[in-house]
Design goal:
OB fold (Dihydrolipoamide Acetyltransferase, E2P), Helix Hairpins, globular, 683 residues, alpha+beta, D-amino Acid Aminotransferase, Chain A, domain 1
Length: 683
Amino acid sequence: MSVDREVQAAKLRVEELRAIIAHHDYRYYGLDSPEISDAEYDELMRELRQLEERYPQLITPDSPTQRVSGQPVEAFGIVEHRLPLLSLGNAFSGDELRAWQRRAANLAGRDDFTLVCEPKMDGLAVALVYENGRFVQGATRGDGMRGENITENLRTIRSIPLTVKEGAPVRFEVRGEVYMNKRGFERLNEERAREGQPLFANPRNAAAGSVRQLDSRVTARRPLDIFIYALGWAEGETPSTHWGVMEWLGSLGFRVNPNNARVPDIEAAARMCEEWQGKRERLEYEIDGLVVKIDDLALQGRLGIVGREPRWAIAYKFPPIQATTKLLDIRVNVGRTGSLNPYAILEPVRVGGATVKLATLHNEDDIRRKDIRIGDTVIVQRAGDVIPQVVGPVVSLRTGEEREYQTPERCPACGAPVHRPEGEAMSYCSNVACPAQAYRQLEHFVSRGAMDIEGIGESLAKVLLDTGLVADPGDIYNLTKEQLAELMLPGKKHPRKVGEKNAQKAVDQIERSKQRPLSRVIFALGIRHVGGEMAEVLAANFPSLDTLAGASVEELQSIPAVGPKIAESVRAYFETEANRRMIDKLRQAGMRLETVGAARPAEGPLQGLQFVITGALAAFSRSEAEEKVRGLGGNAGSSVTKKTNYLVVGEDPGSKLQKGQQYGTKMLSEEEFLALLRQHSAG
C-alpha cells in the first residue's frame, strides 16, 4: 500500500473511531446509559491514540484524545470551570506505569519524586466551590471546561460539608467523586424493580443518574457519598504537596479516602497497584484502578498537561469486571434440591482476566425483573472468584428479534412435570428420583464444606451413579476398594481406570468422614434452605439427628435464627421416605449422628452475649471458635444485628465487618478474642 493510501485508510478509521466514541460519550455522560463496558471504551481510545501518534497530521483540536468527554446539559445551567477538570491517561500494566514515570522523569530532569496512590473511584467527578467557609456552587466535570450546575442536588449529600472549619481560604474549589456503595446500589435496584422501573447497570451509573436529576428531592432519597481527591484552586496559601493538601482538607472537614497512601518510588506504587487489584472486592464501593500522582505540586506545575491529560498523574486500570456480549440462549440445570437453575450461553468474552462463555441468571423472577431476553446484548460481570452473572440488557441495541424466556414445563433431565411453590422464586422438578438431582446431591454430599471426601470427584460421582453402585449418598459407605479400582473414568483422549492407589485413598477418606461433626452431616444432607451456618445453628440446638428429625415446625421456629420457610423445609425433608432410608444407611455404616462431648451449659461467664465471627482465624476454625463461645454460655450467631455484642474479626473479613461498623458493634481482633476466652476459662 502506498503512503498516501495508508494515510487515507488511517484517516477513515480515525473518523470512524471518533464517531463511535462520540456516540458512547453521549450514552455514558448524557444519558447515564452506556452500551459498552469501560474496558471496551478504553480499547477504542487506545486505538485512536495509537493512530494519532503514528499520523500526527490527523490530530484535530476536537478529537476525543484532546478534550474531556461529556457535554454539559443546558437544562441544569452551565458553570465555567476556573481551571479545567482533566481526564487521566491510562496504564494497564506495571511496565506501562513505569514508562509513564520515565517520561515524567525525563521532562523533570530528576526521578527521585515521591508519589501518592489513591483508589480510583467509579463515580461522578464534581467541583465544589466555597466562599467565606460556605458551600456556594457545585458542578459536574462536563467537558472539562464547562459543567452542569447541580448545586442543590449536591447539598443533599450529607458527606459534603455545607460549611468548613476555620482556617480555610476565602474562596477555593475542591474536587471529588460522588459514588454509591455496593449495598446502597443493590437496595436502589431492588426498589426500582418493585416499582417496575429499569435497573441501573452498575453503581457508577446509579450515582451519575442520581446526581443529575432536575428534582433534587430524587437525589436526596439516594444513598450517595463522596471522597475529595484534589484541591482545584484557592485564593490564599496552601500546602506545597498533594499529600499535605489532602491532610489539610481532611482537617477542614472534607471526606478523604483513608486508603490513600504516599510511597517513595514507582516500584512501591506498582506493588500497591498489584495488591489492590487482588483486594478490591473487600471495599464497600467500586474502584476500577488506582490513580498515581506526583506529590510535589510545584513539579506538577512544571510538567503541565498534554492534550486533555496531566503529565504528573496516571490511572492504573484493573482488568474489567464488566463487558458486553451477546446472550445466545438461556438453559437450565437441575440442582440437588430439584431446583431449575437458569444460566446464560454467551458469545465468549474476556472479563476480569478470564474468558466467559456461561453466566448465572439466578431465577425466573430475576430474568423478568431485569427484562433479559434471548438475543439481547447484555452486560456481564465477573468480580473476584464469583461466578459470572448477567447484570442486565442493553435495551438501546435491541432489534426486535429478541425472545422472552419461558421456564420449561417439564424437567430437562427426566421429563417430569415442573412446579413452582407459592411464594418461592424457583421452579422445581417434581421427581424425587430425578437422575440430575441424584448427581448434584452426591456432589454436594462429598464436597469440602460437607463430608469432605476428596477422593470422590465430579467424574467418579457420575460413574458411580451411572453404574448403579450408588443410588444416594448413603451407598458410598458400602463401596469397596476392589469395586472402585476397576471403574473407568472419562479422559481427554481415552478412558482410564481409577486404580488401586486412588481407590484406597477414596475408601480411607470415606471412612474418616464418618467422624465429621453433626453440623457438617446436617449440611451434607442438602436440606432446602439449610446452608452451612444454619446447619451449625441446628446442631447447636439439637443434640442428634434423630432429635432434629423429630422436631415439629413450632419447635424449630422457637430458635431465633429459624424462620417458617426453613422450619417447614426441615420438617418436609425428614417426612420424605427416601430421605429417611438414606439416613438409615448412614446410621448402619457407623456415621456419627449426634453431638459429641458435654452439652453446652445453661449458664456461663458469657451468658447473654452475642458473638459473630467474620474472616479466617489462625488458632482454630470458625465452628471451633463458635463452640468455645457456646461452651462459656454465649451465643454464636451467623449474621450481625443490632443485638450483636462482639464481632470477632479475622483475616480477610467479609461484609459482616461493614455491617458491624454500621451498627457500631464492638470489634475484637483474634488476639483480643483469645484473651477474652482465656480470661473467662480461667475464671
